[in-house]
Amino acid sequence: MNIAIFVAISVALSEILTSLMSIFLQGKITPDYLITGGVVSLMVSGLVVYLLRQVSRLSEDNVNLRREIASRQEAEEMVRSTEEALRASEARLRLAMEATRQGWFEVNFQTGEVIVSPEYVKMIDYEPEEFRSSLQNWINAIHPEDRDAVLEVFRECLESGCTRTMEYRRRTKKDDWKWIRSIGKIVELDSEKKPLRMSGTHTDITERKQAEEALRVSEEKYRLVVENANDAIFIVQDGMIKFPNHRLLNFVGYTDQEIAGVPFSSFIHPEDKDMVLDRHQRRLRGEDAPSTYSLRIISKAGETLWVEAGTVLIDWEGRTAVLTFLRDITVQKKLEEQLLQARKMEAIGTLAGGIAHDFNNLLTGILGYTYLMLMKTEKSHPFYEKLKIIEQQVVSGSELTKQLLGFARGGKYDVRPVNANDLIIKTSEIFGRTKKEITIHRKLQEDLYAIEADRGQIEQVLLNLYVNAWQAMPAGGELYLESGNTILDEQESRPFNSNPGRYVKISVTDTGLGMDSETRKRIFEPFFSTKGMGKGTGLGLASAYGIIKNHGGIINVYSEKGHGTTFTIYLPASVKEAVEIKSAEGSLLTGDETIMIVDDEPINITVVKDLLETLGYKILTAQSGKEAIELYREHSKDIQLVILDMIMPEMNGKETLSRLMETDKEVRVLLSSGYSINGEAAKILDMGCKGFIQKPLMIEELSRKIRDALDSKDS
Q1: Number of domains in the chain
Q2: Less packed terminus of the chain by CB within 10 Å, N or C?
Q3: 534, pLDDT greater than 50
Q4: 188 and 61 belong to one structural domain
């Protein structure tokens, strides 16, 4: 607009000057007037130019002003938008904090004022209008056990300006404690870079902390259970042992670090390894496999241990594994082996007793007729020596059956209180005279308890052990004999099925070749022998075992290959005093009394009848218990003695004796059997028998026992 005015004024001035020049040329005006007019025109023109310039500046200022106004309006609009966005953001932040149970705080270090959000106030059970806080109050509200740790983190935050996190307990209005997780950061520094303000958030983590504590307590309980369990507990994953408890480490003798690098299979006994690994793989594949079974493991020291394993398939750290429990059953297994051995020996003993019984019945007939033939044969007769040989062979056969019966349960004959030292001295002197290459050492307790035993059988046991030691020392050696008093408790006696109490201990130790484990297991079996064909029957140690067991005792062996052998015998002590036994006379004793023989074996009846008639006795016979009762009723006044067989069909010796005693309480009975005095025979003897005679019947012994029964004081 100002440009247009400027142009118009310029045109007007130009026209004025042009008109003045025309008038001047026409002479209508003077030159002075023309100059004056021109000057005026120029002055007016300059004034116009000046005014136009001022107008132009004002116009530019106006444009600039409008632009500034527009810019300020735009800035104000942006501020309004920013404030609205900030308010929306704060609202969203407040909603988020409320949803996450968070509150915020701000600390002014100059004033010590602490500003907190309503969420934090509610967090500690206050109402917003009643809560007042300061930095010191905030510190005082922290649990004393947490205060030092919190202040240390607080100082680190002030020094570094970095974001720091603290977890602590804070007292509430209800005077209890809540766990708070606080995250803070320095948000303003002064000109000297010192902190002015800190801002951050608070979160209630009480429930999480309670859950963590409950989990910790639970884990501690399980840890205590696992670590103090009697069972070894561990996890097998990828063939390796993980998470072993102390029981396992003590059990196998490895440290925690050592066992971590050893595959589980390396602990398994070679004979059990295939079985265990097969079941382990089947279980991992989800197939049916026994979860409980027994196996042997090898400790670090090389010891073989029996364990019972229990297994459970589990997920461990995201992968399949097997939770394993091992219970030490080594002692139990040893007890089972000893019990099994005892039962096996008992069964073999029963069989041996039955064989000996039947064999003794056969020998009775052979020996009896041999006696009869010898009694009627002159020494000059060519058959006399042959008959004596038969007699000797039968006697040898009877010794064999005695060994069998000694092995059989209950095989005792003549039990009396004896001093074991006397038996050791007597047998060792006899043995020593024939085995000069063996040096015998005796260490005998002087005040040794007496034992109730069959003297002859215990002597047989000792001689068998001496012979066994001699055979183990072919180049000679040392034999150590020891006796002593001892007491066995229930734990020590139970594996041998014996009673606790006082015992006499006898040990026989040699410096011989020793035995391996397989030989030790079979050493007491009848007919088992390490000697070659024709060098022994294998009954020596078997009969020793049976004799000691029959006396209520224990016989045990310890031996190592190349380190000799020790046999240990425990015999129950007696409260009675030991008595000295005099040897019996070998002459035949005769008589004229009436004797009834009761036996189901016809050959035995015949041969015993002939023998006793030769000795002058009158004989009645019965082949069954029923027949014996009827015969005794008919001749009770005449019969002075009954020789009664213990084993008979239908009515055995015990029942027959009971029925005879109903008929006559004073009946005299001599019990006879191919068995020895076992449990049943002992019961029959206790019923009132006058004695026991072992088949095969030796004529001298038979004649003596008959006279003892007939001549006893209560006749």
Answers
A1: 5
A2: N
A3: no
A4: no
